[in-house]
Amino acid sequence: MNRKHKLLIFSSLATTISAIVVASCSNNSKKQDTVSLHLKPDKKLFISENNLSMLEKTLFEFSNNTNNVYVDIEFTGITKLPNNDIELKYKLIKNTGEKTEEKGLIIKASQLLSSEPTVQDKNKKQQDSKQSIPGATEPNNQGKSSSEPKDKPPIIDEDEDGFIVPDDEDSSDEEGEVPLDPDDDPYEPGSDENDEEDIDSDDSSTPPNQGIKPSPGEKQKPPREKQKPSRPRNPNGHSKGKNKKPPKVNINEKLGKFSATPKTEDKIRLASWNVKNYGNDAPVSKGQAIASVIYVNNYDVVGLTELDGDNVPNILVDLLNDLEKKNNRNNTWKAIISDKYDALNGKGQADGYAAFIYKDNIVSPLVLGDKKSGRFYDNSEGFETKYGGSVNQFNRPPFLVQFGVKTPKYQKVNFTYMLSHLDGPGTGKDSPEPKANGVKKQGAYEANEAWNIKKVFDWAKKITNGDDDLIFQGDTNIHKGNQSKVFGWTKDYGAVMPLDEDNILTSLKANNNGYSEPYDKIIHYSNMNYTNATTFRLYDFVRYSNIFQYAPINSYEDWVKYVKGYNSKRYSQSYVYHGISDHSPISYDLILDKNDAH
User: Where is this region: Disordered (predicted)?
Assistant: First the structure.
């Protein structure tokens, strides 16, 4: 079989590069089998075939799990190997302009067989913009460029944003994925058939189960005098279309060294994390893992939910201060812990407390009117039951702390941070909770709570003497596709939601192979801008060799062994999911404005 390999580059109006690798094979038949690898502007790679190759996984993880430290990819060539596999050669480019050494990825020939892409001749301009990558060579033809292919390349249709549109055949699957050939599957064995939605065990009534920096807009909402930021347009750069099933994770694939996005002194990194029933007597390994993730991501303030013990924040503070001292960094961590949640209407309560841990040299809590630094929402602004049901209050009221900035040049700046863990997703079998009116897969309780966060914002302004820099983060338990409904109030309110629900999934599947829902959200209402809205994908904890700060963890097996040394309990499923959390942390960088004194 005579194979020809072509690498084509497309430029989009977004000033980023979309790359298509087309590997075609021909024989005596008239049909050509081809595969297209699509690199979109956020540097995620999609393959329009029935399986996912090592190429897609590697570049996907490089771009996302390094928090965009690697901002571009330079393809240097393709080589056909004697067994009809191909080797794609590339360099990764950091945001400093520095390039890595040339890397190579082997793509099996069996993974390159797929249907021919859609060919459309309607856009001649697209065809003219295609260029071949120099250096694509055959093994026995080193040094000879194949940058001018003899065969006329296919024209790949693009959508209105300049992004590549997969062909109809590959896009026809509603879930976006066809079962892999067991012989070619590079992922962990085991079906996730029943794991499409991992359900949080939030309470007895519910069954267990980057951002583009917003620029100031033109509209003003009285009495607010500052301009409200415009809603970000697809923060991750994806064009809209059918919801695709997210890629699986190969937990055994190594990702090298982790490096958090650099942060300058004019930014504060605000994070939140549902730490899955973390109690005072939890295994030491759990606290060490959580502290390690917080430390390497360079968070400044972290909101913690699903705390079962009031001493947990102090445990984490001690661990973090030890790490800071060990690494000769001048940060000092402290904690502010909520009162214990009351059980609502006699209902069981999954969480005991909420808390913020923070770098005391960066920010400090401000004392509110009642001489407290932290307060629960008191329902004084009312509660709308827009989506049905009779419960007219939060099960776990949002916890509020106003922080003052201590960084030089920005000491007049403050902001108010609200944290919550909304009611569990859906309705329980024996629960009195009704289904949410007009919102699929949601119970009325969590849907109403999401809608009433605007009331919490109104209340926050009053108790903070009019602070207009308001941030909410937390586990909302709102399913993918429902954000625009239950958080529809944000648009009129002048708030934005930086995380893209289609592409940033934060709840873990329990079988080590991926993520299921975008439950964790950020709501930003401020004249100050933001950047770097993201998540740390928790399964990468065992894929990077430098995350865990207390012992060498170079594989999933290393982590399992380490957890077993501290915990007599054995898990039938993931030791990341059960041994750390069933959620990934989320974060974004608040860009400080020294002139924003209120």
Answer: 116-253
Indicate whether 304 and 420 sit together in one domain. Answer: yes
Residues in contact with 541: Cβ distance below 8 Å, sequence separation at least 6, in sequence order: 289, 292, 293, 547, 548, 553, 559, 576, 580
Examine residue 298 and state whether it is found in any structural domain, yes or no. yes
CA distance 407 to 268: 10
- Please give the Cα distance from 211 to 533 (Å, whole number): 4
Report the relative pairing of strands 267-278 and 301-307 from DSSP bridges. Answer: parallel
Q: Which two tokens stand for residue 450?
A: 């999401």
166 and 286 in a single domain? The answer is no
pTM of the model: 0.64
Distances 588 to 139, 294, 298, 360, 507 between C-alpha atoms, Å: 46, 13, 11, 19, 18
Strand 353-359 to 2-11 pairing = unpaired
Helix axes 312-326, 284-296, angle to 10 degrees: 60
Domain count, the chain: 2
Q: In which order are the strands placed within the sheet that holds 17-26?
A: 45-47, 33-39, 17-26, 2-11, 131-132
- Which pair of structure tokens corresponds to residue 173? 């699957």
d(CA 266, CA 596): 12
Confirm whether 383 is domain-assigned.
yes
Of the chain, the percentage scoring pLDDT greater than 70 comes to: 61
Predicted pLDDT at 349: 65
Final residue of a structural domain among 115, 147, 171: 171
pLDDT tens track for 191-238: 333 333 344 444 434 433 333 344 444 444 444 444 444 444 333 333
pLDDT band at 158 (very low <50, low <70, confident <90, very high): very low
DSSP string, 117-134: PP---S-HHHHHH-EEPT
Say how far apart CA 186 and CA 513 lie, in whole Å: 11
Assign 3-class secondary structure to 229-278. ECCCCCCCCCCCCCCCCCCCCCCCCCCCCCCCCCCCCCEEEEEEEEEEEE
In a domain, 236, yes or no: no
Rg (CA), the chain: 25
- Tens digits of per-residue pLDDT, 517-568? 999 999 999 999 999 999 999 999 999 999 999 999 999 999 999 999 999 8
Q: What angle do CA 451, 455, 458 make, to 5 degrees?
A: 140
How far is residue 221's CA from residue 227's CA, in Å, rounded to a whole number? Answer: 8
359-382 pLDDT, tens per residue? Answer: 999 999 999 987 889 999 999 999
Which bin fits 351, alpha (ψ -120 to 50), beta or left (φ > 0)?
beta
List the domain range (segments joined by +) for residue 486.
Answer: 270-591
CA distance 428 to 409: 51
CA dihedral 448, 454, 458, 460 (to 10 degrees): 90
Query: Can you say how many angstroms the Cα of residue 486 is from the centroid of all Cα atoms in its chain?
Result: 20
The Cβ of residue 120 has, within 10 Å, a number of other Cβ atoms equal to 14
Instruction: For 155-182, give the secondary structure using H, E and C.
Output: CCCECCCCCECCCHHHHCCCCCCCCCCC
Q: What is the CATH number of the domain that holds 283?
A: 3.60.10.10
Integer Cα distance of 291 and 293 in angstroms: 6
